[in-house]
Design goal:
The chain has helices at about 5-15, 40-50, 55-60, 70-80, and strands at about 20-25, 25-35, 65-70. By secondary structure, it is of the alpha+beta class. The longest helix has 12 residues, at about 5-15.
């Protein structure tokens, strides 16, 4: 599966506006940006991203998954902080 395939799976299942996926082999890092995260707990944010990928995790396509979620305002701060 390509990074774009994973990104599309998440977007289609959740309606999240921006999803960035980077992978090395079966290890994936997902950064998701959407204002729906403002009202979610950290656990709910993780579940929102991992649920559409559960089949790929179960079949071994995805072995390791790192998830970071941000609202648009949080993402702007994160980008400035990490420049």
């Amino acid at each position: 599966m390509t990074d774009e395939d994973i990104s599309n799976l998440i977007r289609e299942a959740t309606g999240i506006s921006e999803v960035i996926v980077k992978s090395e082999g079966s290890h994936y890092q997902v950064i998701a940006i959407d204002d729906q995260f403002e009202t979610m707990s950290r656990v709910k944010r993780q579940q929102t991203i991992s649920a559409p990928l559960s089949e790929k995790i179960a079949d071994g396509t995805i072995h390791a998954l790192s998830i970071k979620t941000f609202s648009h305002a949080q993402w702007q701060k994160e980008k400035v902080f990490n420049q």
